[in-house]
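Local shape tokens

___
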Amino acid sequence: MKIDQYTLRATLMVAAMSATQWASVAEAQTLSDTKTVVRNAVLTRQEGKMALSMDVCLDELSLNHKQSVAIRPVLVSKDGTQRVAFEPLVVDSRAQHVLYKRGQGVETYRDARHIKRSGNSQTEFYHSTIPYQPWMRSYQLQLEEDLCGCGDLTNLPYVPSLMRNQEPERVPLMRVQLSPDDYKKERQLEGRAYVDFRLDKINLDPTYRRNPEELKKIMATIDEVRGKQDVSIERVTIHGYASPEGTYEHNTWLAENRAATLSNHIQKLYKFKPGVIGSTSTPEDWAGLREYVDKSQIAERTEILSIIDSQMDPDAKNERIKKQFPERYRQLLADVYPGLRHSDYVIQYSIRPYTLEESREVYRTHPQDLSLAEFVALAQDAGMETPEGQAIIYRAAEIHHDNPRAVLLAAQMALGQNDYARAEQILPANIKDPQQAYVLGGVRKMQLRFAEAKTLMEQALRGGVSEAQAQLDELRELMGE
């Protein structure tokens, strides 16, 4: 299967849970007059409906031969302005149940569920659904009791553990569009070598001091890339550094020419195409000197750092350290400055695109050689809703952890599976990408951390994520704003 690098869109398809439990199992509750006991009550939302399930224990219910008792659960909005009743449960005496079967009973509960009171031990399972409405995110469950079965209902206390005042909607997932960069496979390997040159010289002697071993390091890195299948070396860069002793002007000449000499030596060994290998330089490695001093415990550490960080020109800095701290300067000159004369090298290379069939094998053996687009094509082929497809997306985020779209795909995958801990692990600690802010905002909302969710959704909205507006509206409602 060929991937269209300009039109492919990665649409995250996560299988939603078939039902979302909206309330904990309630403690047993005894109704006031009938001594009926309601226990194991659970509310769930499923396919646009609210469902109530509970056990109704009738062991203590006593009826005379002409009596029926109705129990009706009612869902009430937080502010009490909205009420929707579930199907009533009518418990008939034996005689009343006969009349009900004959169609001769009281008409009030003709369409309700009727059961006959029988025996000393009797527990009935109750289940009923009502259409879901948005206000049901904040609700209380109330039970009503009708002792005569004639429609004269009495409100009973609310079921305490079936009150839900802050229940967020599931967070809609965004479409993630891949960019042309997600099809590219540009990689690089980096290294550092300490190639020695004789004092003030720019000519390279491959046999001088450590040079045989240091040159082998560079060659080994190049050979590692050249040994890969489907790889083309695009660029080899040698970056030379000199140490701060001597004048800045002279060190500029040394660093620039030594780097050029080393790159010419590598070119002779490998015969790269014109333009592949090149050199750059930094006259004096003050950053390396600062890093060493900062991490060290040497005397006058703070004072030396202050000189390094000052706005003095490089020659003045070196002279100030030398004159003000002569003993420490001799220590740095002997122990640190030689390590500041180094050659860093970068080998940049590209990997050819793979077909879907090839990608399957590469995923098994060298997944780091796949582009994000190739990971997505594999996941779509397996099915985004399958464990295999989801594992592919998570692996893509591990390998392409610097790619915000790879991170976004995997984080949304975890959010869709209600795996909030995993979503947090995938997302960066300091989120700057607005789409990632939206996902973490969704995680915080589902964790009922509404203030944090609101801040993140506001960040997402400022960054152009239009989906965040609906989330902000809901959060303000949940927070009572």
